[in-house]
Structures are given as structure tokens and as C-alpha cells.
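Bug #77: duplicate submission created two jobs. Keeping one. Sequence:
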Amino acid sequence: MVAFELSRQLVRMGHGVDVVTMHYGNLPRYEINQGINIYRTPAWRRRSNVSYTHELATYMPGALVKVLSLARQKRYDIMHCHFIVPGGPLAWTVSKSTQIPFLITCHGTDVPQHNPDRFGFAHKLISPAWRFLARNSPMLTSPSESLKRLILRNCRQANVNVIPNGIHTESFEVGQKTKSILMCSRLFAFKGFQYAIEAVKDMELDWQVDVVGEGPYLPTLKRLAEGSKTPIKFWGWLDKEDPQFRELFNRSSIFVFPSEAENFPTVLLQAMAAGTAIITSTAGGCPEVVGGAAILVQPRNVDAIRVALKKLTESEGLRDRLSKAAMARVRQFRWDRIASRYIDCYRGIMQEAAMKSVRRR
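Kept job's structure:
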């Protein structure tokens, strides 16, 4: 959703935006959504919230034809590609053909060694092509310093600029807080939800734990939650536009996100905008998101999560202080500010491309 939210903000700021993406289900092949021209090209995709290697591969042929056609027709000022794979090869190929400059935003799963549960074999298979794209792209952007370091570890020659993910803070509001502890994410083992469930299941809290999300680790989490002395409810996947999604954030007093490997998790921005007291891990970009507005714990540390939960459930004052700190900090990640930083990058890349064109003449 980062690409959509950025596009929406760019339109608000007066820019024209076309998006080429994968077709899914019964969605129209073309539509205008909040001023964004959206083109969906043929691809085999089974689920809306996750895509696998073979599905991504089916996107590339149709997308290449569509992007090349649009680029020749509209002569864009710049192309903004999200994910080095599969979009990077398309952007590079179209740029070579049309001389339209481009940049690529990395999101984590497209960087080798970032995600221990996804695309490991695929990254090994395409590593030479990955390094070629990283080295030859005018600019890569990374939402976090943590991911930037990992990109440079894989390709020292890459030009990487850090621009955080953004949030429309007005989408959330601080509702009447209840005794609710929220966890929300795609459910993989590395997200660490099992450690939070282990921490809370013997605590006999008069609170409820709400778990939002789907994924391959869901059955394991449900088994682990059996017999918990603190109630645990699994909601499945909820779209962020679903009123229930926002209600859960707005009413929750505590948000727990103990992931072992993260780039710049938007879900923490959502929790901050909703004014929750946050417990998150020291892994990856999590500390970069929350700053001092959260309790940090080491990954896989059940005891540390239990201690943090005990402190927060017993102290309304501590919850209130962390809530206020989170709401103050999240303002710096508003999409209008983040989009302005991207526009500065666009201008720099376009100027460099123009100078190179002059030198070639």
C-alpha cells in the first residue's frame, strides 16, 4: 500500500500519476482511483495480500508491454519502481529504450537476507542480476537505515537514499481506550507473535489480545493460544479500509510487534497514529520508527515481553505517556512530508539525466 498512498499524495500535490500493477480477481483492467490512473496487467495471483515468486514472474511480460507503450505515448518525467524485483528489470529496460530516468524503492523482501522465510532461493538464483540492477540504478531508496546497510552489504556500489514510509495520520483517531492488546501483521514465524502469546498466556490478565492477520504461521499461533488464561481472539485478515480494522487500532491501549526482521513497518506508524502504547523489538528498522516512543525488547525474548506487558497493563500513567509520545513522533511521517522528499529525489535524478543527455550530444 506504500505505492498507492504515495501516489495519492502526489496527485493531491498536483502531479499526474499512472500506476501499472498486477491484475487480481475481478478488479478492472483500468480505473481512475482518487486521481490515479491504474493499469492492471495479466498475472496469475491467488491472494490479494501476498504474492509468491512464480506469481511475480507472470506479471513481467504483460507489464513490460504496457509500461513501454505508456512511456512512449506519455513521455513521463520519471518512473518510480517499487521493489528491485520484479519491477527493476522492467524499469531499467524501458529507461534504456525511452531515456526516461527512474528510481527504485526497496521494501525488504526484494533485498537478499532481509526476510528469512521468503524468497531465499530466488535471491540466490538471481543474485548477479540483482547486483547489476542495484549498481546501475540512478538511485535506490530505502525506508530505513537498517535496510540501507543490508543493500550496501549486497552491493557496495549502490546509490541509496533513506526515505521513511509515510502515513495519513487523519485515518486514525484516539478512541476510547479499552483493555485490549493488539497485534497485527502477516503471520510468519519471524514476526515473533508466538513469543508474545507465550508471554501472555499464563498471566491471567483481565485484558483481551486481538490478533489481526493471515499467513502460513496462523495455525501454529492458534494452537499455541489454546488454553490461554488471557483471552486471545484471531480476527483473520482485515483490509485497512475496513471499519473494524480502524476500530481495533483506535480502541486498543497496547500494541505488540516483536518481529525478528523488519524494514520500516507501516503497522507501527498506524499504532502510533492511533495513540497506543507500543512494545516492539530492537530488530531492523523498528527502533527507527518508534524512537523513544515505545518499550523495546530483544527479539525472541518472552520474559522481556512479559515484563513490558506487566508494566503497561498495571500503569495507566505509563500507557498515557507512551501514547502521547507516539502521537507526537508520528507527525514527522505524514505523507505530505514524505512525498516532498521523493519529489526532491525526482528532481535530482531528472537534472542528472538531462546533463548526461547534453553531454552525449
